[in-house]
């Protein structure tokens, strides 16, 4: 069962400048940052609020590390903006299989590693009214790395 | 101070079909629906989770009621997808003025009426790294109308 908005993924050309925009404009701070070589992104997670399922909601700012990554290609076509949305669940395996059985294309055969050692998969945007949709099960929700 | 992701605004061509997609695929139910003639939209709010500031996070599904509305023009150009994101605050007036003073364009001179009698304003996406950003103060957070 999907129990929270886990994050909003936002693609940007310059992660440092975008982090600074969110800090200076709204006071949002970086909760975690990492490079995901498989996804081809450098990312910063800004924690916005806690959620009543024991997790939290974040903005995930994404800068491609290479032009041929999914986010790099998306940015070249669309410019900066919201790239995807993510729902949190305690069971990404079960939920993604149930959704696949309903005829929605799930992009990975099995969940892969996401931010903060989460396990993630994506649903095809053409099956989701234009919204690239991620499902995520957190490893250790709501624990900062600094 | 912005204390939650209040909602993700998603533009769609057919509200009823999109509501049914979110219900059938994820089990999300309509918490509130209304027509906002000023904004030129028919909308459904799907409540996803409660937040630790006493509010909640929603998906806001938006179908234009006329082609020349902001959402209608956006849909004609972009197709279905994420139209805007919204942060919740107890003080949309003070926060929007403080953000205006930082040089970010605020689209309304004063906040206007939004979903569920909230008060809202928008920030120019070109000043926000491509993200149309709404600020919202709820009237009565987290109380369903049915």
Automatic annotation (TrEMBL), chains A, B:
Signal peptide: none
GO biological process: L-methylmalonyl-CoA metabolic process
Gene Ontology MF term list: metal ion binding; methylmalonyl-CoA epimerase activity
Listed Gene3D superfamilies: 2,3-Dihydroxybiphenyl 1,2-Dioxygenase, domain 1
Entry's EC annotation: 5.1.99.1
Domain VOC: 4-138
Family of the protein in this entry: Belongs to the methylmalonyl-CoA epimerase family.
Protein name: Methylmalonyl-CoA epimerase
Species this chain originates from: Streptomyces palmae
């Amino acid at each position: 069962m999907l129990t929270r908005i886990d994050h909003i993924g936002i693609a940007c050309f310059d992660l440092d400048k975008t982090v600074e925009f969110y800090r200076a404009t709204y006071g949002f701070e970086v909760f975690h940052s990492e490079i995901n070589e498989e996804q081809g992104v450098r990312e910063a997670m800004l924690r916005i609020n806690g959620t009543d399922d024991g997790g939290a909601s974040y903005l995930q700012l994404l800068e491609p590390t290479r032009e041929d990554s999914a986010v790099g290609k998306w940015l070249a076509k669309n410019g900066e903006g919201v790239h995807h949305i993510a729902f949190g669940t305690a069971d990404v395996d079960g939920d993604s299989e149930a959704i696949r059985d309903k005829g929605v294309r799930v992009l990975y055969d099995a969940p892969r590693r996401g931010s903060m050692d989460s396990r993630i998969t994506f649903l095809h945007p053409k099956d989701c009214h234009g919204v690239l949709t991620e499902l995520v099960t957190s490893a250790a929700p709501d624990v900062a790395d600094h």
